[in-house]
Backbone:
């Protein structure tokens, strides 16, 4: 399986790096960063990633419903709507939902809150 994003098909779609940055971060995050940092993020997300096609195919073939216990919803996620994360948690027996601020990649926006949520989960067995 190959997953490709082509910006040539739709002229209204910005370049890949800008597009992925807009999905990965909350609206507030880029506004709070220096422009050169935002540009660096855009360039890194737009660069080809070795093995990304294989990683996506591998991930799509996994069923973790019996193993997954923590479902984290990011309040500013524009890639996976927070209500979808809640729906996912509701569909997994024993899953513990958690909410953090930020976008799809909250670990990059606020590492402290992400570690706090994950640590609390690991410290309290189900």
Residues:
């Amino acid at each position: 399986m190959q997953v490709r994003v082509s910006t040539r098909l739709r002229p209204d779609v910005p370049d890949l790096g800008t597009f992925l940055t807009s999905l990965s971060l909350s609206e507030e995050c880029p506004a709070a960063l220096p422009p050169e940092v935002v540009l660096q993020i855009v360039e890194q997300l737009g660069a080809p990633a070795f093995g990304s096609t294989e990683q996506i195919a591998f991930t799509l073939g996994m069923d973790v419903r019996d193993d997954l216990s923590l479902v984290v919803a990011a309040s500013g996620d524009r890639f996976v709507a927070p209500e979808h994360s809640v729906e996912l948690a509701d569909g997994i027996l024993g899953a513990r939902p958690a909410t953090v601020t930020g976008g799809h990649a909250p670990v990059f926006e606020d590492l402290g809150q992400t570690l706090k949520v994950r640590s609390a989960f690991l410290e309290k067995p189900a």
About this structure: The mean pLDDT is 80. Strands lie at 70-74, 96-100.
